[in-house]
């Protein structure tokens, strides 16, 4: 048996998005500020809709999730030499954004549930001078957010939430991204709404929203935003904030608006795929599933499992055998970064850290995409191949 589907094939852009994109191209007005009078362009309208979707007061549409993260740091006044706490288990754009502003990441250990270790967070926050936590909800896994917020408040930490993998999800009754001071989202092709590249920054803080808008390159046209602060919020910062251009354009916004409207339906469909994979792998010897917090409304766009008893050589061969049968697994324990998979060991620009608990978890951690082009029957086929190869 071989799986014939593609782990990288996304759904087509909705017809409404294609029509809206065509209208923007026919107008020639792709730049977000190429509007007249009181007209709100596609990007401003998207900001307004995304703010409503998340419940945030302010929303800024930008070129990527990574740009949103770096802009969040700059908006908080993070400068070269500062330290920023973050998960050891994350993807390269997170430490990359910290390094991009000249700051130093302080990696916090990861638990077997693939979330940040709250005890290690408290210890490293006390030991360092860090006043910012960039919390990555890596692969949709979130810690006990109430407990984390209590720790942050006690230690005076400002929280930036990286919600690239949780857009559309919730923790308890709280929309993902609404526990912290700032939240950042991605609309890269493999995320939950797709514009190729793109992202959002949301906050309830008018000063942060004003700085972020100026950083994105507003050319003092910040009155043309759909979910920006009042104009007087910009006055203290307009002449001292550099333009680090990263605006979203009207073409990408036009593609995204219809997708945002159907995101709840996508979340439900991903949950069904994720459940199907769990069911298929639940009793496979040597395969350990990740414990899920039942209070989370996850977005199951990817699936993880751990094979902690297996040696590195066996896992490398297992990944190769699954690939030969059409099942693409990413292994976080590999020595070298490959494709979209890397770990703290590969980020020499971020420094070297002793993270024994994280390393134990990553050594046997395997990951796969679950695009919405898959069916539950596809998940059954993939599970059968993994079960077969895991038994060899």
Task: Describe, in short, the structure shown.
The chain has 392 residues and is α/β, with parallel strands linked by helices. It is built from twelve helices and 14 strands.
Going by CATH, the architecture of the largest domain would be 3-Layer(aba) Sandwich
Total helix count?
12
CATH superfamily of the largest domain: Type I PLP-dependent aspartate aminotransferase-like (Major domain)
- Please bin the fraction of helical residues: 25-40%
Main β-sheet: number of strands, strand sense, barrel status?
7 strands, mixed
In which order are the strands of the major sheet placed?
A: 1-9-8-5-4-2-3
Total count of domains? 2
Order of helices and strands: HHEHEHEHEHEEEEEHHHEEEHEHEH
Distance between the termini: 15 Å
Low-confidence runs of at least 5 consecutive residues: none
Rg: 21 Å
Task: Sum up the overall morphology in one term.
Answer: globular
Number of strand segments: 14
CATH class identity of the largest domain: Alpha Beta
CATH topology of the largest domain: Aspartate Aminotransferase, domain 2
Structural class: alpha/beta
Average predicted local confidence, pLDDT: 96
Key attributes of the depicted protein:
14% strand; seven-stranded mixed sheet; globular; alpha/beta; single chain; 14 strands; 392 residues; Aspartate Aminotransferase, domain 2; Aspartate Aminotransferase, domain 1; four-stranded antiparallel sheet
């Amino acid at each position: 048996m071989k799986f014939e589907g593609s782990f990288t094939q996304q759904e087509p852009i909705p017809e409404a998005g294609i029509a809206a994109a065509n209208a923007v191209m026919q107008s020639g007005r792709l730049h977000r500020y190429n509007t007249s009078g009181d007209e709100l362009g596609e990007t401003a309208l998207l900001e307004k809709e995304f703010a409503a979707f998340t419940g945030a007061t302010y929303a800024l549409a930008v070129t990527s999730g990574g740009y949103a993260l770096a802009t969040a740091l700059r908006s908080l006044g993070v400068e070269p030499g500062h330290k920023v706490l973050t998960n050891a288990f994350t993807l390269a754009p997170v430490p990359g954004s910290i390094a991009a502003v000249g700051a130093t990441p302080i990696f916090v250990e990861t638990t077997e549930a693939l979330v940040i270790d709250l005890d290690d967070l408290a210890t490293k926050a006390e030991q360092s001078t860090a006043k910012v936590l960039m919390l990555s909800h890596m692969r949709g896994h979130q810690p006990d957010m109430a407990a984390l917020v209590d720790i942050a408040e006690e230690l005076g930490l400002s929280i930036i939430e990286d919600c690239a993998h949780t857009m559309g999800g919730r923790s308890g009754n709280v929309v993902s991204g609404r526990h912290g001071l700032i939240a950042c989202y991605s609309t890269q092709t493999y995320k939950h709404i797709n514009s190729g590249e793109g992202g959002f920054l949301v906050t309830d803080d008018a000063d942060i929203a004003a700085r972020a808008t100026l950083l994105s390159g507003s050319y003092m046209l910040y009155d043309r935003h759909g979910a920006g602060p009042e104009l007087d919020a910009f006055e203290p910062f307009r002449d001292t904030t550099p333009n680090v251009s990263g605006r979203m354009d009207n073409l990408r916004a036009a593609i995204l608006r219809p997708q945002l409207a159907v995101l709840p339906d996508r979340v439900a469909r991903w949950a069904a795929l994720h459940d199907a994979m769990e069911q298929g792998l639940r009793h496979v010897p040597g395969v350990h599933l990740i414990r899920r917090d039942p209070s989370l409304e996850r977005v199951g766009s990817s699936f993880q499992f751990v094979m902690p008893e297996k040696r590195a050589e066996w896992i490398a061969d297992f990944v190769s055998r699954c690939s030969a049968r059409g099942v693409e697994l990413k292994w976080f324990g590999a020595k070298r970064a490959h494709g979209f998979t890397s770990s703290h060991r590969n980020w020499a620009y971020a420094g070297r850290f002793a993270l024994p608990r994280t390393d134990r978890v990553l050594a046997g951690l395997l990951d796969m995409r679950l695009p919405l082009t898959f069916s539950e029957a596809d998940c059954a086929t993939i599970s059968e191949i993994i079960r077969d190869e895991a038994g060899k």
